[in-house]
Amino acid sequence: MIKKIAITGGTHGNELTGVYLIKKWQDQPHLVKRSNFETILLHTNPQAIKECRRYIDKDLNRSFSKDILTQNPTNYEARRAHKLNALLGPKGDKNTEVDFIVDLHSTTANMGLSLVVSSKSKLTWQAVRYLCEKEPTLHVYRWMGDEEDAFVDSISPNGFAIEVGAIPQGVLRADLFEKSATLIYHLLDFFESYNKGDYKDENKQIDIYDHVKLVDYPRDKEGNIIAMVHQELQDKDYKLLKKGDPIFLTLKGETIYYEEDEPLFALFINEAAYYEKGFAMCLSRKINLAT
Ligand SMILES: [Zn+2]
Predict the structure, then answer these.
(1) What is the pLDDT of residues 126-184, one digit of tens each?
(2) CA distance 103 to 110
(3) CATH architecture of 4-202
(4) Ion ligand 1 — residues with CB under 5 Å?
(5) What CATH architecture does domain 211-285 belong to?
(6) Residue 44 · residue 230 · CB < 8 Å
(7) Would the pTM count as exceeding 0.90?
(8) Which of 43, 80, 42, 40 lies closest to 60, judged by CA?
(9) Distance (Å) from CA 254 to ligand 1 centroid
C-alpha cells in the first residue's frame, strides 16, 4: 500500500520545468490529488532556484551518499540533503516518510521524455512499465553507474527521475512542460489503481537503455577540451553508434570516429551541465527487461 509520495523539483535550480510544475501544482493541488494516498510537493534546492543556478556549492543530486548523510554537513547542498533526508526518508529505513519519489529534471540534450532509474525495487519497475504503456515515446535509461547511490530519489526505496529535453538551462518550453505533467498524472493514476488492487502484475517485458559508460571530450595535456560533439551526432540521442561513425569534431576541423567494436546507444549528448563533470555523452546497451 502506498501512503505518501513526493514530487520534487528544482534539485537543479536552473531546470525550470520542475521548478514551475511544482509551483503550478502548489496553486492547483487538486491536479495531483488522488483518492487513496497523499502527494507532497517540494522544491528541493530553494537557494539555487532563487539564483537560477544548478547548485550553490555542490550538485544536490549527488549529495545523498551514506558519507554525506552521516557526516556533519559542510556546504549548502549537504545541509539540504540532511533536511530532505529527515523530511522524506530516512534513507535505508524500513519506514521512510514517503514511499516513492519522482524528481523532475530537464536536459539540454535532445532526450525527449526519459526516465532515469537507479532503483531496483519491484514497485519502481511496475510504475516504469505502466508509464511505457501509457506513453510510447518514453525512453528508460537505467543508470546503476551512480556508484555512490546519491540521487534525490535514493532517499526512498522506490522512485526515479524524469528528464526532458532539449531545453536550455533557465528556460521553460510549453510542449515539454505539458508532456512532463501528463507523465506525472499517469504515474499518480498508477498508484491509485495499484492501491485499489486493480493493477495486474503480468510480468511483461520492456525495452530499456542500460548504462555502459561515460565518454569524455578529447582534451589536451592541460585538460582543455579540444573537440566538440560532431554535427552528425548532435541532437541524435538514443542513436545507435557503430564503429566508424563520427562522434567529435576537433577545433582544427578533424573528425574523430567511434571506435568500439560493440555498437552502443548514445544519450545525454552534449548536456551542458556535464562539461564540468567531464563527459560528453553516455553510452548504453538496449536490453529487454522483465519487470
Ligand atoms: Zn537535473
Answers:
(1) 999 999 999 999 999 999 755 678 999 999 999 999 999 999 999 999 999 999 999 99
(2) 19
(3) 3-Layer(aba) Sandwich (3.40)
(4) 12, 15, 105
(5) Single Sheet (2.20)
(6) no
(7) yes
(8) 80
(9) 32
